[in-house]
Amino acid sequence: RKEVEQDPGPFNVPEGATVAFNCTYSNSASQSFFWYRQDCRKEPKLLMSVYSSGNEDGRFTAQLNRASQYISLLIRDSKLSDSATYLCVVQEAAGNKLTFGGGTRVLVKP
Amino acid sequence: DTEVTQTPKHLVMGMTNKKSLKCEQHMGHRAMYWYKQKAKKPPELMFVYSYEKLSINESVPSRFSPECPNSSLLNLHLHALQPEDSALYLCASSQQGQFNSPLHFGNGTRLTVT
After folding, report:
1. What is the pLDDT of residues A84-102, one digit of tens each?
2. Quick one: closest CA in B to A100, which residue?
């Protein structure tokens, strides 16, 4: 089993719709969680950190479920510019090792 | 605009060449990373430097040789690469050993080995 797993998609989303997807992690001692977005042939860019109580940044909402060991990302009112690959990143309890999930591809269509 | 700067943006090299990739950050981060990313795959960790010392080497072949001259600079020396080493090479930095300290990536160097 991979340490961090994501549904690769693609998630085809009508413009204006809501889309949500998860990322599961295997190490119960993981402490920090992040969502990154990556556009084609570009570097990953931090979208948001994921906090225990859940957090929101505009149209984006991130949740953490420690009991079931997954994080989620929800995008409301999808824009064409939201089309990208969304990578979850999990940091272990100690050290500087951050593990990437395989990414979820989202395609927002008019 | 990224606060981590990588040069060159593109590099084409033959299998007998020696080249170096460079990375610089001025955010005061004491952890620096090299990742390799192939098309349609997530970034794959290669090396981590912590306070200018190599702390993680993910069993990377010796034809890749990292160097951290000071807290702001990170190099990756390349020698005798193979065509399958063609990829996007990403440098990143983060605050040392802190939780909730995300990676900050540079724009990457797109490497083609011929």
Report:
1. 999 999 998 666 788 999 9
2. B42
Q: Determine the residue of chain B that is closest to A89 in CA distance.
A: B102
**Tokens in use for A79?**
């824009």
Q: Return the half-sphere exposure (C-beta side, CA atoms, 13 A cut-off) of residue B60.
A: 21
Rounded Cα distance between A20 and A75, Å, is: 6
For B33-82, write each residue's pLDDT tens digit: 999 999 999 999 999 999 999 999 999 999 999 999 999 999 999 999 99
Mutate to test the interface with A, among B100, B109, B112 (most CBs of A within 10 A): B100
CA distance B90 to B103: 11
Residue B33 and residue A96: Cβ atoms within 8 Å? yes
